[in-house]
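Posting here for the record, re: beta-D-fucopyranose.
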Amino acid sequence: MNPDTPRPYARHLTPRAVPGLPADFRWGVATAAYQIEGAAAEDGRTPSIWDTYCRVPGMVVGGENGDVACDHYHRMPEDVRIIEELGVGTYRFSLAWPRVQPGGRGPANAKGLDFYKRLLDELEARNITPWVTLYHWDLPQELEDAGGWPARDTALRFADYAALAHEALGDRIEHWTTLNEPWCSAMLGYAYGDQAPGRTDFPAAIRAVHHLLLGHGLAARRLRGAAAARGHALDLGITLNLGTATPETDSPEDAAACRRADGMGRRLYLDPLVRGAYPQDVVDDLALRGAELPVEDGDLDAIATPIDVLGVNFYRGTLFSGVTEDGSPLDGDGLPVTRGVERDLPRTAMDWEITPTALTDLLVGLETEYGVPTVVTENGAAFHDTVAEDGRIHDADRTTYLADHIDAVAAARAAGADVRGYFAWSLLDNFEWSYGYDKRFGIVRVDYDTQARTLKDSALWYRDTIRLTRESGARDTRTPDTEG
Ligand code: FCB
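Prediction output follows.
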């Protein structure tokens, strides 16, 4: 048993068709540029906030960085062949802003774009649909030096970059995601210091929230305009990291804690994106903490530019209490307590509780409250893999995690949620941000000494599950006429 797993989790699973997922359900795998590409200083790429942050002693486990990562920049064709072998129809990846537009301003870098054009060639040759994210956390360092996301100008720079990327690649990519997980960029990056750029300034983080959303909205407008003018198909979205907040007891304090957690983690983003207004209760909570969203005229209209799909990254749900361990409703600063409570549940190597039914609840709640079609753009788990004597990786815990969460998606669909796809995080073991290379999320193992790739058992299970589900979905939709 995995020493870090307090409760056994892995079950022995054989691939089977997942009932209720149709033949056209979108299956994918996901990665992000800084986590896999390497080639940090090649072909004109300039440093991002992550290159800088990794060099600050103590910020990343083992002092590691993304200089080489999975060397995907040089091994891309092999990686695309693996995606083909998995039989997923869609590959979600991100463009490195400092590769496409070094320094975050000015013209595109042809060599940087060439890499993505070669990637698109490989994907097209293998019939794999690209699903591109414009920003997966690698802000050009120059823009951080000019104020970063707390500065309004960064939103304008992002919209320019989005337009430039779309101009170069918009004829070949239909599915565009503006931002990955703005909550992480703002809160982990600027309030808690756990991710680049590592600042700890809560009011600055709240300004970052607004400017990330504004950047999304301005970029969305530019992409919509350009696609319409050039006659390109466009499926536009944003990806949020979302969870669920469950009260520990039925006390009013615990209910209030859940309201606050859900407000800061979910409604603060979705209300302006879908309804064009920030939630007033969250605005009031922020004021109590001395923070304000720097909204200017017209910003909310831009932010509410219609999206076609909401990307949902899901890892876990959380139980909340509104009192400290000794029962006080206020913390040391006199603010109401919002405290995550640990449960006796199986956990991953990240020490994250495994809560698949929360994914069903989340997706059904999104349908009811916001009514936007969703795709699960990330879901997966790190476990301490071992290579067996036969050279295989028998990662039954990861397979079980994927199976339970795919079932949770099917359950959400059965309950009426319009969930259109599921992408496993991640294709490859990769650079897990401040955890370095220690946490392995891949369904494909990377041996960092040799860069050899090995499909783990979870990858083989995923491949066969997708095939069987597609076949069964196709049978279900066949009319009696075509049956014979
Ligand atoms: C998400 C990130 C992704 C990866 C997973 C484990 O928050 O989007 O890059 O690190 O977590």
